[in-house]
Amino acid sequence: MQEALKQGNMRSATPIIELRNLSYSYGNSKIEALKDINLKIYPGEKVAFLGANGAGKSTLFKHLNGILKPNLGEALVHGEKISKKNISNVRQTVGIVFQNPDDQILAPTVEQDVAFGPVNMGLSEKEVDSRVKEALELVNIAGLEDRSPHHLSGGQKKRVAIAGILAMRPEVIVLDEPTAGLDPRGAENIMNVIEKMNHDLGITIILSTHDVDMVPLFADRVFLMHHGRIEAQGTSKEIFKQPGLLEHVHLRMPRIAGVFELLKAEGLDVETKVTPMDARDEILRLLNTPRE
Ligand SMILES: Nc1ncnc2c1ncn2[C@@H]1O[C@H](COP(=O)(O)OP(=O)(O)OP(=O)(O)O)[C@@H](O)[C@H]1O
Per the record's keyword annotation, is Membrane included, yes or no (predicted)? Predict the structure, then answer.
C-alpha cells in the first residue's frame, strides 16, 4: 500500500472507488438491500467487508462495476460516475470474482475460459496467450490449461475465476467470499494469491468474508455491514476491540481477541490484540511485568 495511505494521509489521494448516498432495492421489493451507503476506497488498499448473511455485501459489490444501478445516489470510479458511456472502461478497471465460480466459468477449457476477457477486449492472439500464461502462473494453476473447469476442485475453480479477471489486468479486484467452501490450507493459499496480487501488482483488493480470524491478518480497513447499512468502518484494531458492536452485527471477535477479553475478565491489565504477532508481544510484555 502507498506510504501516504499507511500514514493515514488518505485525504491527499483520490479514491479509486466512491459510493455516495447510495440506496438500492431489488425489483419491486420494499426492503432496501442497501441504505444510504457512503464510502471511499483508495488505490492499493486491501479492504474487507464483514456482515451476517443478507447484510448487503454482494449487492454492494455489484454496484462497484455497474452490474447493478443504484436507485438513489451514485457510484464513482476514479472520480467519474459510472454511466453507459464509461461502463466498458469501468469493467476493465474493476473486476469482480463472484462467490460461486460456476457463475463465472463458461468455456470448455481452463485456457479458453481465462482467455475470454482478453479476447473480448480485442487484444491480439499473442497478447491473449501471454496474459493467460501470466495469470495462470500467478494463481499457481499452470498445467491445467486443457482441463474442463467444471471438473476441477472448488479451490482450483476459484483460481480459474481469479485468473480470468487477472488476465484483464484490472486496477481493482473485488472478491465475494473468496475462501468460502475451501479447506483451511486451500483458504490460506487463495489468501496468499490475493496478497501477491496486491503486493506485487499493486492491485486494490476488496473482499467479503465471514472469516473474522483472517481479516486482521489481511485488511488495511474493515467495513461492517448490517441490514443494508455500513454500521462501522476502521482498521481491524479499531473494529475488533468493540465486542458490543460485533455482537450487534451478529459477528464474533477473532479467537485471539477473545483470549484477551478472558484475561481482562481475570483482572489482568492487558490490551486486546487481534493478530498472532501482536498477541505474542502483549503476552511477553505481561510476563515481563513484575507482579505487585
Ligand atoms: N436477486 C435478488 N432479488 C431480490 N432480493 C435479493 C436478491 N439478491 C439479494 N437479495 C436480498 O438483498 C439483501 C442483501 O443480500 P446480499 O446477497 O447482498 O447479502 P450478503 O451480505 O452478500 O449475504 P451473504 O453473506 O449471505 O452472501 C437480502 O435481504 C437478500 O435477500
Answer: yes
